[in-house]
Amino acid sequence: FFFFLAFVNQISSRSQLSDSKNKAKRISLGIAIAVGAIILFLIYFTNINPARANMATLQAIRGVYSDPTLGVQMFKSLVQNPSPHIDDIRNDFARTATQVLAQLLEQKKIPSAELVFDAAYNELKKNRELHPRDIRVHLEQAQLAMFGAEIKQDAGLVYEAGAILADALRQSPERQQVQYFLATLQWRLGKSDAAIRLLRDSIINDSKIAEGWWRLAMIYEQLGNHSLALKLVAAAGKQGIVFEGQGKAAVETIRNVSSTQR
């Protein structure tokens, strides 16, 4: 009888040990599955999903060049899907849109231009809300607004571009790109005093940058103040400024006016 009890006890102990091992295996398997799922999730969202988004963005960009309607449809479909890189997708499409809009305007394809503008501009607004201190987004949106003003013949978009640039200037008062862009806009709106003030500030902020000098000189030239334009060019030369490209052409224009007046 005691032998029988010992035998039963041994079987029971083996059974309990086997159950414990099975439970441990089940727990280990569960942990492995959970860890594997997390790894796959991370791979998907850090590698596969961004790669798909990049490919879709590239297709939309290519599409908008060859077929604006199709490209815009692809872009709209793309931005409806959640992505951690949605802001980059919007920025990439907006940069492409500025190039495409210039071509469409030249070809007088206004309906297509409106379609591209609306898609890019509306989505870029969301990026400004997402990154209110990113001056690059301000500049891109202001440039799109100027295209929109021409496409839609809407002066309100010109003032909207001015408001965007003014906001950028408040956040980055010494950013030359903003000063030059806003000065050009103010000049187009007939606000020559505001344009001159902005360009003077740009020179004060950094007198070694040629662009502020020639832009200000050209405004004085266009206002009919030729002598002051020449003085600015001469002052820039004393500062060691070398004009190249667009600046060189502007300075030569001012000097040629002087030579014809002799």
Descriptive report:
- The protein has 11 helices and no strands.
- With 262 residues, the chain is mainly alpha-helical.
- It is 85% helix and 0% strand.
- The protein has helices at 2-66, 68-80, 86-106, 110-130, 135-152, 155-171, 176-188, 192-205, 210-222, 226-238, 246-260.
- The longest helix is centred in the N-terminal third of the chain and has 65 residues, at 2-66.
CA-based shape: elongated
Give the low-confidence spans: 1-13, 39-48
Count of runs of 4 or more consecutive helical residues = 11
Beta-strand content: under 5%
Structural class: mainly alpha
N-to-C terminal Cα separation, in Å?
A: 135 Å
The portion of residues assigned to helices is over 70%
What does the average pLDDT come to? Answer: 84
Largest sheet: none
In terms of topology, how is this protein built?
Layout: H1 2-66, H2 68-80, H3 86-106, H4 110-130, H5 135-152, H6 155-171, H7 176-188, H8 192-205, H9 210-222, H10 226-238, H11 246-260
Helix pairs in contact: 1-2, 1-3, 2-4, 3-4, 3-5, 4-5, 5-6, 6-7, 7-8, 8-9, 9-10, 9-11, 10-11
Q: What tags apply to this protein structure?
A:
0% strand, 11 helices, elongated, mainly alpha, disordered N terminus, single chain, 262 residues
